[in-house]
């Protein structure tokens, strides 16, 4: 089966006329007819658009290998991954979380909130300690400045006031 035959098979599986298929993809009926007739070769962008709009396996569309349609969950996840530019690791995490039961996800969220609270509390304690240190440093600085200026003129060296 050639590319032109696969394109026609996709359109027919969707139960669309060439005009309807073209309109959905932003091109004319003539463009679709030319692709299906083998008179023109579709661009990579056009093939990707078909796979983005419909649950079509891009590898099958390009090479004929595999199955024509993807299950809806796979195609939705692929679109989601592409839209949010997920890395392979991020995709694995998302698939893992989606595979968990609602109860398991609830427990994970509970633990994540606990971790977040613990980090926030540690940050607050750290900020409080830093503020206390800064206050102590300021107190010492003021004492040093006072010592450098010397005693007020109204005091003697032994700390007694003059009359």
Short description:
This protein is mainly alpha-helical. The chain has helices at 3-13, 18-25, 29-36, 44-53, 58-63, 72-83, 88-99, 102-149.
> How does the overall form come out from the CA principal axes?
elongated
Strand content: under 5%
How many strand elements? Answer: 0
Determine the fraction of residues in helical runs and give it as a percent range. Answer: over 70%
Could you walk me through the main structural features you see in this protein, from its secondary elements to its overall organization?
With 163 residues, the protein is mainly alpha-helical. The chain has helices spanning 3-13, 18-25, 29-36, 44-53, 58-63, 72-83, 88-99, 102-149. Helix 2 packs across helix 3. The protein is elongated and about 110 Å long.
Protein traits:
single chain, mainly alpha, 71% helix, 0% strand, 163 residues
Secondary structure elements and pairings:
Layout: H1 3-13, H2 18-25, H3 29-36, H4 44-53, H5 58-63, H6 72-83, H7 88-99, H8 102-149
Helix pairs in contact: 2-3
